[in-house]
Structures are given as C-alpha cells and as structure tokens.
Amino acid sequence: MGALLTRRTHGVYIIAATPFTESGAVDFDSLDRLVAFYEGHGVTGITILGMMGEADKLSPEERHQVVDRVLARTDLPVVVGVSDPGLASLCALGRYAMERGAAGVMVAPTRGPAREDRIEGYFHAVAQGLGADVPLVYQDFPLSTGVAVSPALIRRLSQDLPQMVMLKHEDWPGLTKISALRDHEADPAVARLSILCGNGGLYLPQELARGADGAMTGFAYPEALVQSVALHAAGQVEAAEDLFDRYLPILRHEQQPGWGLALRKHILMRRGAIACAATRAPGPRLGARDIEELERLMRRTEIRLKER
C-alpha cells in the first residue's frame, strides 16, 4: 500500500492503459507486466481507470478487478479514477478503492452547462459522499469534458474541501492557470495545492517552470517524464528540456485526437509491456500504414537517444 496523496505530492504518476486481448477481455497477465514496466522506469505512482484506461468501457466488476490486481501487484501509490455520471456509483467505487489501499481518487466534472456554481456544488457533493479522509484529485480536462473552470474556482474548492489536495492540470492552453494558482499561494492563508500535468506531457518543461510538481499522464516512454522531472527538480532546467526535446516528435504523434490511445498501446506492445495493442470496441484500430509510420518514429527516437 502506497502513501496517501497530499498537497506536497510530486513526481510522475503514470496513467496506466488497460490491456485487452484481441477478443476484448481484460488481459490481467499483461496488466501485471505493464505495472512492472512502469515500476522499472522509476515512476512515483500509478493512476488507473482514467480516460486513457478506457474505464468507461469496463463493467463495475471489471473496474473492481483492475483495482484489486494493480493494488496487489505494486507498493507504489495508486490513484483510481472514479468519474461516473452517477454520484452513488462514483462514491461506491471510490470507497472500494480506498478500502483496498488506494492513495486517492480522481474525479472530473460531469458534462453539462459550464456554470461554475454547478461544478462547485457537484464537487461538494462528491467530497461529502466520499468522506473527509479520501484524498481527491480534480481532473481539469475541458477539451474532453467541455467544462472549463477558472483558477479562482479551483482555489475555492481547494480551500473549502481539505481533502481536495491535487489538481490534474490538462487545460489547454493552461500555463497561465498554473501561474495564477501558484500566485494565490503567496498568501499564507492559502493552502498549497499539488499540481500534476497531463496532455501526454506535451508542455511539461513549461508547466514545470510555472510551478507544476510533475506529471500525471500516459506517455508510452515513462522514462522521458521521470528523467525530465528529476532533472528539473535538481535545478538542471536546460538539461531537462534538452532531454525532453528528443522525445517530442513521437510524443506529438501520440497526441492525435481519437488515435492517440491506439498509438500509445502499440508502442507499449512493441516495448514488451503488453501482449496486445487492442482497444476495446468501439475504439480505434491502426492500419498497416499507421503502424509503419509509428514504428519509423520509434526507430528515430532510439537514434536520437543514442546520439545523446
């Protein structure tokens, strides 16, 4: 069992894929391999059942099975995505995960009118339903949810709800949001908020420079995230960005809307982390030319890294 999330949590919490067989069943043997792969590349923690984990395509029983398998396999802190249209289902999964040793749960705002009073009321209801002892991550991903919120609302929620200890920052563009949140903390009365960033890590060097504590995303080269964050934390800012730049072509390719998950799973398969690159239907499937293109980028990435 890993430590609970706090307002000082930092590092790289990798967003885990959910491996499937060609027939669409959850591949638990590959899930074991994937956890070992992430551990071997030095991640700080693991986040499961996120959007990249295809959680919305899993049955409640499968979600429980994934939680059980990962928590049994690793001593790293594990964050569980519990977003659900139904508040009762969300809270039930959250309590299940915490009882089995999760470090915290992640929740995105529900789709609907982008009114801040609606979002504020929703997160108060989530916090009450989960309980004050459950560390809560606000997933701020308006490109997916359609719900954009201001830094002021995030700060207000963080102040009013002591258990909301982390922001998963995926607003795009969103660098000014990070700066605004850190500027708030110049006031001693304002509690610090841990900020880990997503979007595949596409803007990670700039986000770290703005005050982010690390990454929470699923780039299929987790070592790029781990090493970049470590170098930046050590004060080697230019070295961190130089290293990160070597991965940019394939990272950018992996960020294609609609196709990114299939690309990412193919890379994980080619790197030996999972047995099959299938997404669960309905989901994208790469063609021969897509694969040829991607594997060329993988070869170019390896050459760039050897040159370094």
What does it look like?
- The protein has 13 helices and 8 strands.
- It is of the alpha/beta class and 308 residues long.
- The protein has one domain: Aldolase class I (TIM Barrel, Alpha-Beta Barrel).
- The protein has an 8-stranded parallel β-barrel, surrounded by 6 helices.
- Strand 3, helix 3 and strand 4 form a beta-alpha-beta unit.
- Helix 1 packs across helix 2, helix 3 crosses helix 4 and helix 8 packs parallel to helix 9.
- The model has no long low-confidence stretch (mean pLDDT 96).
- Its EC number is 4.3.3.7.
- Keywords: Lyase.
- Belongs to the DapA family.
What's the short story on this structure?
With 308 residues, the protein is of the alpha/beta class.
Defining traits:
47% helix, 308 residues, TIM Barrel, alpha/beta, 13 helices
Task: Give me the CATH architecture, please.
Answer: Alpha-Beta Barrel
Mean residue pLDDT: 96
Number of domains: 1
C-alpha Rg, in Å?
18 Å
**Counting H and I runs of at least 4 residues, what is the number of helices?**
13
List the helices and strands and how they pair.
Layout: E1 11-15, H1 28-40, E2 45-48, H2 60-73, E3 78-81, H3 87-99, E4 104-107, H4 116-130, E5 136-140, H5 142-145, H6 151-160, E6 164-169, H7 175-184, E7 194-197, H8 204-210, E8 214-215, H9 222-233, H10 237-245, H11 248-254, H12 260-270, H13 288-307
Parallel strand pairs: 1-2, 1-8, 2-3, 3-4, 4-5, 5-6, 6-7, 7-8
Helix pairs in contact: 1-2, 3-4, 6-7, 8-9, 9-10
